[in-house]
Amino acid sequence: MALIGYVRVSTAEQDPALQMDALEQAGCERVFSDTASGAKADRPGLAEAQAYLRAGDVLVVWRLDRLGRSLAHLIETVGILEARGVGFRSLTESIDTTTPGGRLVFHLFGALGQFERDLIRERTRAGLEAAAARGRKGGRKPVVTAEKLRRARELVASGLTVREAATRLKVGKTALYAALQA
Question: Where is each Resolvase/invertase-type recombinase catalytic domain found (predicted)?
Answer without folding.
Answer: 2-135
